[in-house]
Amino acid sequence: MPNRLATATSPYLLQHADNPVDWREWGPGAFEEARERGVPVLVSVGYAACHWCHVMAHESFEDPQTAAQMNAGFVCVKVDREERPDVDSVYMTATQALTGHGGWPMTVFTTPDGAPFYCGTYFPPRPHPQLPAFRQVLSAVSEAWASRRDELESAGESVVAGISSRLDLGDPSPLSADLLDRAVGVLADSHDRRAGGFGGAPKFPPSMVLEFLLRAHARRGDPNSLGMAVHTAEAMARGGVYDQLAGGFARYSVDEHWVVPHFEKMLYDNALLLRVYSHLWRSTGAHWARRVADETAAFLVRDLGTAEGGFASALDADTEGVEGLTYVWTPVQLVEVLGADDGAWAAEAFTVTPEGTFEHGSSTLQLLRDPDDAGRLARVRAALIAARAQRPQPARDDKVVTAWNGLAIAALADHGALTGDPGLVGAAARAAALLHQVHWVDGRLRRASRNGSVGANAGVLEDYGDLAEGLLALHAATADGRWLSWAGELLDVVAAQFVDGEGQWHDTAADAEALVHRPFDPTDGPTPAGIAAAAGALVGYAALAGSPEHRARGEAALASLAGLVAQAPRAAGWAAAVGEALLAGPLEVAVSGPAGPERDALTAAARASASPGAVVVAGEPDAPGVPLLAGRPVRDGHPAAYVCRGFVCAAPVTEVSALSAAMGPVVN
């Protein structure tokens, strides 16, 4: 019989709706019941595409004896970390403080007031050398609660006090050119010169750091910045972490050479990486970078697009409980699909070996170099894609998360504008329209929806910042004033709800549900930190709307992150990237005139600039809601480009060469 999760909207919670555990969703009712029963709360946090979450569910949560023990001794609460990032943040901070590490599934025991006193991650059904069995943990906690409840409650209070102290970021300081140059040097020290990336295995795509390095190169002309970015991006794109058949990146590589991925594909990774590869192509003209950007954009629209116009969150790591089942190949399988000649050729091209690079003699596909015969490669790819489509496919987490859709809108609008692909810009616009229609409720954002029905959970800071970033890119790509207007409304909410009277930033709104502490994390995770996302949107809005006030707010936010950028740029890549935009801009370019080849040529030249401070809008003179086009007529019957740097404008130009000269290199 289904439990109380049967009415949830979260795909992750619905995965547990048939567990014999009497799960509850997060909410005050669960903690009230714990107070009435006099038992602790067991909070289990995970997400739909998480491999080890599935493992623990099969091993423990589907086991009747384990479930009976959980139901008898605890009020059990299941949390989707992607729908409740605030809850996840609070208890992940506690887990890391108590254990020295974190991850999912996350298992937290709290008092009926929500104070955590014992934390862990995955627990096996039988004891391992370093891990007790989950039922042993349940017994130990129950016994301790019965005999030493006062001690556990006191411990919970101490944990809350410890995690409530904010990270000391030092005194605010402007993100100067010298500071950002030093950040590049810190990154160089940890750059893997052999395999690309930063640090050792496992390796996660360093999306925000790569964007910073590309922007730093545009400002400094430093070959080292570009070299690290190109080396890492190409290593990832040629490795098994990238889907060499259908496009799209997996979550991370378990090895240092990008060969074996953790096979889940996340919307946020692919949105951020699409923008990186698009910008890398703009900077270098590298054919492989353009190909990867195009394929990643196609993956987003084709495989993650929803019927309502948004983008789904992820494809699972597992297929029928087995990682890699959909994606890996043996030489024999290649021959079965392609025939002897093409099969042998494909095995060499994609590094599919008899020994295998993955498990059980199978291999992930790598493309370590471009084959000479592009036509043959295309034919082989098409045949393998068709054959792979007949295999069992990973499940899709089809909830639409505001922040991640904002990242996708930005990437698709940006790449579509840069390449002249109206289909991608249209996909971005449809997603934005869905978010406005469904997620924007009474002047506030909700975190997620599914099948066109919005959930109850409030948006957090990253939702506002990332969506505003996407809307600004969409405004620049379309010259549609409604997107700029909505971005301004979002940033008004940020100022009113996420920054307190002392100038302190928070990840949850002032009127949000009160947790045991109000979370704030200034560091990037797999997505930009909320404060960095908001700062980037503030700087972009300032340039597009001509608002020094918004620029000042963005500068102040970044100044509070200066110490983090200088000391740990791998944790502050997006803040550093926004800092580059501050140094190089605002560089505002308005291309004014009727649609046609002349305007298109000027627009393409403007968008070819890699200046991190540049914003470009093209449209009819005085288009409604587009400040950069206001009062900017055509010149002598021809479209004109108006270039303003630092809110100081040059004379309009009508020739591409004159526009390129007016934009010029960035010098700091």
Descriptive terms for the model:
about 675 residues, five-stranded mixed β-sheet, globular, Glutaredoxin, Glycosyltransferase, alpha+beta
Question: What does this 3D model show about the protein?
Answer:
- The chain is α+β, with helices and mostly antiparallel strands and 668 residues long.
- 49% of the residues lie in helices and 10% in strands.
- The protein folds into 4 domains: 4-163, Glutaredoxin, CATH 3.40.30.10; 264-316 and 398-582, Alpha/alpha barrel (Glycosyltransferase); 327-391, no CATH class; 587-663, 3-Layer(aba) Sandwich (Glutaredoxin), CATH 3.40.30.
- The chain is built from 25 helices and 21 strands.
- Strands 1-3-2-4-5 form a 5-stranded mixed sheet, with helices on both faces. Strands 19-18-20-21 form a 4-stranded mixed sheet, sandwiched between helices. Strands 8-9-12 form a 3-stranded antiparallel sheet.
